[in-house]
Design brief:
By secondary structure, this protein is an alpha/beta fold. 52% of the residues lie in helices and 14% in strands.
């Protein structure tokens, strides 16, 4: 029955597209009339619209006329030059009908799903112009600083022609510059810059004049699925120096922890070898116990990783992992872990010392890294009737002080173990100019200025032998999700929104509208191929790249992490295939290289976010 109804009246998306058709027709008719006007008459439309809005008209009333004005401005600007990011580009874009529909979807608080290359950047100009006429400011959100600057200068060519002001928020701007940018009719910037400016305004501005933002009226979010779904829970944190800092403690403990990690590595080497021997002899149960110990002590052990590439061996480990969680084998699991110096929780990125580890760190005083029972000690003091109150007070302070000191030392050891065993250089972080810089795990981008909390960053700095900065504490925080829910009007565009349509509706009350392409799609989308192991998958990928390269076909390889892109690069070097690797470390350069990825025989490897939003021209 539902299928029949859909066949007769169409899906909601079909109905929305049908409703947009007469509006598109009206916009095109108005644009034909505007072609007869002089340049001065067209530019006079902006103050005229503002006047009508002031007299009670709504933005919906002006939609067709405003869109027609933007389309006509684009037509008149064809052939003119726009200075964009140090280059002179010739303007040659006039919105197609499907782009007009996309612009309407954005104005109507919807998400416009448009295929790659359909001109989403241009689509945003129409709803941005229309809503900026209210004088309340429109924020256009992009995924990086380079795209924010590029789009503000490129699309600003149209806005400035029509008499609007355009601003762009960049990373190193002073508050006075930011205030001027937010005062513009349309402001481009990244989600992080908008969020951090809000935090600074709410937590660090003492007077109204010190605030840089002027409200949250309308936001158009580019790559909305990446920003509002993938990074939704990411907290934006503003930190300040902590009152106490344990730089010296990390330096003092580093050689002891380094020795301990070395002993653990030697132990795990021995356990992996024993596991292999048991597997060769068919002693699966004994092999499982050894594999379990290595996975608990050093889950990133290279020999373990190689061993687990075999599905049968991975199955052995998964089986024992599940068994050790049951009550029956809880004690056995604890006993096996106690044979290690420390245990690692890979998922939680956490580490903790065992009794054996405590003894190895301090043979003369094994209790040096064991927390005493504070409650029992204080109860014992309170129950002592022979001691004077003043003496009790002093003794209590002494016990608490000793506890805090020991707790801090144990915490520093745990963080150093995490730094040495869990956090890898050039994967989770890089070292540049004597500083540890975090690498975003989703995008592979460097995040200068960001620091891990709770002493972890200092532990990594101690590990790498760079200057240990003072510990920080959180002063203000907000998630990306909560920040964007503050806007009166929110919309966005992306090439992949329909798969997350339910989430968008539940969290943000946003509907997805799938916009058809301007011309029929010629690209062939084949089915995904699934392999049993990573090794098989990567070998097949290299074989495919080699064949395409020999035919002269350009190849763009997308990876999920910096680690994967480096691995594919090493495999291609062995095959003597020239290629570019983009780990999203330089936005401006990456966009330039990605734009050339369509040249004959070019092979480009990039993390999924590298060069996002850049046109790739074939041939």
């Amino acid at each position: 029955m539902q299928w029949l109804l859909k066949k007769i009246i169409g899906t909601k998306n079909d109905r929305d597209l049908r409703l947009a058709r007469p509006l598109v027709q009206r916009i095109n008719e108005l644009e034909l009339e505007l072609q007869k006007m002089s340049e001065a008459e067209l530019k006079a439309k902006t103050p005229e619209f503002r006047d009508r809005l002031a007299k009670g008209a709504t933005t919906d009333d002006l939609l067709c006329e405003a869109f027609a004005v933007v389309k006509n401005a684009c037509r008149r600007l064809c052939g003119t030059q726009a200075h964009v990011c140090g280059h002179d580009l010739v303007w040659e874009m006039v919105p197609f009908d499907v782009q007009l529909v996309g612009g309407m979807a954005l104005h109507q608080r919807k998400i416009a799903e448009m295929a790659t290359g359909e001109g989403k950047t241009l689509v945003a100009t129409m709803p941005a112009y229309l809503n900026a006429l209210t004088g309340r400011g429109v924020h256009v959100v992009t995924v990086n600083d380079y795209l924010a600057r590029r789009d503000s200068e490129w699309m600003g060519h149209v806005f400035k022609y029509l008499g609007l002001t355009v601003g762009c928020i960049q990373n190193q701007m002073e508050p006075s510059e930011r205030r001027a940018m937010y005062a513009c009719d349309i402001t481009y910037g990244t989600n992080a810059e908008f969020g951090f400016d809000y935090l600074r305004d709410m937590g660090m501005a003492y007077r109204f004049e010190d605030m840089v933002q002027r409200g949250h009226f309308f936001a158009i979010v580019d790559e909305i699925d990446s920003i509002l779904i993938d990074e939704a829970r990411t907290p934006l944190i503003i930190s300040g120096p902590a009152p106490h800092s344990g730089q010296q403690q990390f330096l003092d403990l580093k050689p002891h922890v380094e020795r301990l990690v070395r002993r653990q590595r030697d132990l795990c080497n021995k356990l992996v070898q024993e596991a292999k021997d048991h597997i060769d002899r068919g002693e699966e149960e004994d092999a499982q116990l050894k594999l379990y110990q290595v996975s608990q002590g050093m889950p990133k052990h290279p020999q373990l990783a190689r061993l687990l590439e075999e599905p049968a061996h991975r199955k052995l480990l998964e089986k024992i992992d599940n068994a050790m969680l049951t009550d029956m084998r809880k004690e056995q699991a604890r006993a096996l872990r106690e044979e290690l110096y420390f245990t690692i929780d890979e998922k939680g990125h956490d580490a903790s010392l065992t009794e054996k580890g405590c003894e190895a760190l301090s043979p003369n005083d094994p209790d040096a890294y064991v927390l005493p029972d504070l409650v029992a000690q204080l109860s014992e003091l309170d129950g002592d009737k022979t001691m004077e109150e003043q003496k009790k007070f002093e003794k209590r302070q002494e016990v608490q002080s000793r506890y805090a000191e020991k707790n801090e030392r144990i915490h520093a050891v745990d963080q150093l173990i995490r730094a040495f065993s869990v956090y890898e250089r050039d994967v989770q972080y890089v070292v540049q100019e004597n500083q540890v810089i975090i690498v975003d795990e989703y995008t592979g981008r460097l995040m200068p200025g960001r620091r891990w909390s709770d002493g972890l960053h200092q532990a990594v700095e101690a590990k790498e032998g760079v200057k240990i900065e003072r510990e920080t504490q959180t002063l203000a925080t907000i998630t990306i999700q909560n920040y964007f829910r503050m806007y009166e009007k929110l919309s966005g565009m992306t090439g992949t929104a329909e798969t997350e349509a339910d989430e968008f509706h539940q969290i943000y009350k946003l509907d997805v509208m799938v916009i058809p392409t301007n011309r029929p799609v010629r690209r062939v989308d084949t089915n995904d191929l699934i392999y049993k192991t990573k090794r098989e998958k990567f070998n097949a990928a290299i074989e495919e790249i080699t064949q395409c390269h020999q035919r002269g076909q350009p190849v763009l390889v997308g990876t999920i992490s910096v680690e994967s892109s480096e691995l594919i690069s090493r495999m291609l070097r062995r095959q003597n295939i020239p290629h570019n690797v983009l780990n999203a470390k330089n936005h401006a350069r990456e966009a330039e290289i990605v734009s050339l990825a369509g040249q004959k025989g070019t092979v480009t490897i990039a993390t999924n976010m590298a060069g996002r939003g850049t046109d790739i021209k074939l041939g």
